[in-house]
Design a protein that fits this description.
30% of the residues lie in helices and 25% in strands. Helix 4 packs parallel to helix 6. The chain is globular and about 65 Å long. It binds ligand EPZ. Ligand EPZ binds next to helix 1, helix 5, helix 6 and helix 12.
């Protein structure tokens, strides 16, 4: 198992280029199943989750070829489906595999997808995906831990209302509805930029979708979809992570290829905390405004609220801010796995249910710590960059799932970081 060894205390300076969004690339790869024509994706990040998704669609019958020239360009072609099964050993490693459910049902009216099972941050059910597909005419049975779905007469449009926004359920039903007979309305749909990006791709393929980015999506089914060329949008979570890296180390970074507004509510919270973010031609500049970081309360909410995927990173920043910060996680049941690890580095945090009270300290101290999930891992990297001395982070395979070339990008702006086998 690889480890990361970081010597902290160095203010980061230089330029970081942001990659394509993992959470937009994954549904885009699934969307290619909807057509027998080629779908070319650009700006696809080179991360483990994308490799897993490509392996899954290849099993289903998609040919995935990397196109030379610009990095991250992939050509997907699914002339016919050779399988309709997403097996447990793939799905358990990457929950987003369930995103093939809607496309398979829409394309051939059958799917056998393993239930994802839980993960470190919570039970992660898919009931909203399944209820929505049933409303569209699918018959769903749970057999031996698998979802067995059939739509022998094809899917039909329906009115679907979510009790709370779900990114994955919105994406699955959106893709299923593009080829359903009639119109589908999804009420209380997720509004994340990754959903807007998926709608852009589906419309380029010939789908008819209104309301992208709002909480009401209206999809008028069409008889078939064609190929398309699509560039994946920049990863707002990666951009937010590096913005916090600049702030926590007291350095200054130029973030390239990610517009500042992608940060959404995190931008306002970072400003409140004393971080200066300045719009630039092809991104933004970020650093502390006057050297002091202030404790700021944060509550994670569905987009456009503060992203749950930035909660752990923001908590690391609050560990070295002046005063206290109350951080409340409202999306997932157990997304504080980074807390005990940050405390090993001297952070002062007390957790009460879904809220963590952080009291800022002068300096964190390097220590051996353990990564537990993707975003918790990177919050430990951020803390290590700011801490005095040496930190060793174990189980960093979590990081490789969602951050492209993390050590390279950090080392290029002055971090003392190395991967030790
Ligand atoms: C997506 O997960 C992202 N993953 C997550 O990023 C992100 O944290 C999450 O959205 C929330 O923004 C991808 O896009 C691949 P949800 P998803 O459905 O779709 C509950 C990362 O670090 N729920 O929006 O699984 C669920 O338990 C990952 O990149 C149901 O109850 O999240 C959660 O509490 C982590 N029933 C809430 O809704 C369902 O059928 C939001 O989940 C579906 C979800």
């Amino acid at each position: 198992m690889d480890r990361l060894v970081i010597t902290g205390g160095i203010p980061l300076r230089g330029t970081v280029r942001i990659s394509g969004a993992k959470n937009a690339a994954l549904p885009a790869i699934a969307a290619a199943l909807l057509t027998d024509e080629p779908v070319e994706l650009a700006n696809v990040p080179d991360v483990v989750d994308v490799a897993s998704m490509l392996r899954l669609v290849q099993r289903l019958g998609t040919s995935a070829t990397h196109i030379g020239g610009a990095p991250g360009r992939i050509r997907l072609l699914t002339p016919e489906l050779l399988s309709i099964e997403a097996p447990y050993d793939l799905v358990r490693r990457m929950r987003a595999s369930v995103l093939v459910l809607g496309p398979l049902l829409a394309r051939v009216g059958r799917a056998r997808v393993s239930l994802p099972g839980g993960c470190a941050i919570g039970p992660r059910p898919i009931d909203l995906h399944l209820k929505g597909l049933e409303r569209m005419g699918a018959q769903i049975d749970l057999v031996d831990g698998y979802v067995e779905a059939r739509a022998p007469d094809g899917l039909h449009g329906a009115e679907i209302e979510f009790p709370q926004p779900s990114v994955g359920a919105t994406e699955n039903l959106l893709m299923a509805a593009t080829l359903a007979r009639g119109t589908t309305r999804i009420v209380n749909a997720a509004r994340e930029p990754e959903i807007v990006d998926l709608v852009r791709l589906l419309c380029a393929m010939g789908a008819r979708i209104e309301g992208a980015g709002t909480s009401i999506l209206e999809i008028e089914g069409v008889s078939r979809l064609g190929g398309a060329h699509h560039t994946i949008l920049p990863d707002r979570i990666e951009a937010g992570t590096y913005a916090i890296a600049a702030a926590i180390t007291g350095g200054r970074l130029t973030i390239e290829q990610a517009p500042l507004e992608l940060l959404g509510a995190a931008r306002d919270k970072l400003c409140e905390a004393g971080v200066e973010l300045v719009e630039r031609e092809n991104g933004f500049e970020v650093g502390r405004a006057n050297g002091i970081l202030e404790g700021v309360d944060v509550m994670t909410r569905p987009y456009p609220g503060f992203a749950t995927d930035l909660q752990a990173q923001f908590m690391a920043l609050m560990c070295v801010a002046r005063g206290a910060a109350m951080i409340t996680e409202t999306i997932f049941e157990n997304r504080f796995m980074h807390v005990p690890e940050l405390m090993r580095m001297g952070a002062k945090i007390t957790v009460h249910g879904g809220s963590a009270l952080v009291r800022g300290v002068e300096r964190l101290k390097g220590a051996p710590v353990m990564a537990t999930d993707l975003r918790a891992s990177v919050s430990l990297v951020l803390a290590a960059l700011a801490a005095e001395g040496r930190t060793e982070i174990n189980r960093i395979y979590h990081l490789d799932r969602g951050y492209e070339a993390l050590e390279r990008k950090l080392a290029a702006v002055g971090a003392r970081i190395e991967r030790v086998p």
